[in-house]
TrEMBL record:
Record field: catalytic activity: ATP + H2O = ADP + phosphate + H(+)
Top-level EC class as recorded in UniProt: hydrolase
MF annotations from Gene Ontology: ATP binding; hydrolase activity; nucleic acid binding; RNA helicase activity
The protein, known as: RNA helicase
UniProt-listed SUPFAM superfamilies: P-loop containing nucleoside triphosphate hydrolases
Motif Q motif, chain ranges: 171-199
Residue stretches of biased makeup (Basic and acidic residues): 13-24
Domain DEAD-box RNA helicase Q: 171-199
EC number: 3.6.4.13
Coiled-coil stretches noted in the UniProt entry, renumbered to this chain: 103-130
Amino acid sequence: MERETNGTEDEEGRQKIREEKDKSKELHAIKERYLGGVKKRRRTRHLNDRKFVFEWDASEDTSIDYNPLYKERHQVQLLGRGFIAGIDLKQQKREQSRFYGDLMEKRRTLEEKEQEEARLRKLRKKEAKQRWDDRHWSQKKLDEMTDRDWRIFREDYSITTKGGKIPNPIRSWKDSSLPPHILEVIDKCGYKEPTPIQRQAIPIGLQNRDIIGVAETGSGKTAAFLIPLLVWITTLPKIDR
């Protein structure tokens, strides 16, 4: 109890010291303003002087005021939550939201506060889920891909398809359903990543469906045709002679 009393007295003492300092500074500023005083002569700038003068008169600084009447300004709350012209709109919105938030916090009961906390937790959980769902397709597993992810994937690789029930393209060789021995041969041939025509044509070819693929020269159309063909050949029974 004595410590709390001593702490309160120390705080009151420091507050009085600050008030006395502010009063003395304010009195000194008033004397300089109306009675005059020794002023530092400002450097005169000549017309042919291109250097910028960074000095200014201390009396011109209006950012700090020692009078509590001007230091603690009252924020006007307009009817209908309007705004004051000539002042930053975002700053006014922040101050108004802080004012109404503090006002509602004082009026809320314990039950309302618990409901608000539950609502905020639910909102944060929803936002976290949204951020998790909005990850780039390269950061997702194959079973986590959505229709939106596949659409973005096709746009990234300039894949355009026409037809019905078209399978999804392959993202990488390891995500494809190719047999291991075929993947080993592909790796030995130096195909590290499939080309756009291979990404879409191989899944369609593995379904034994007809396809017409249009791509520029050197884009891997031959491999896109041969890989499904080799997979089909390996499924045929061996011929013993």
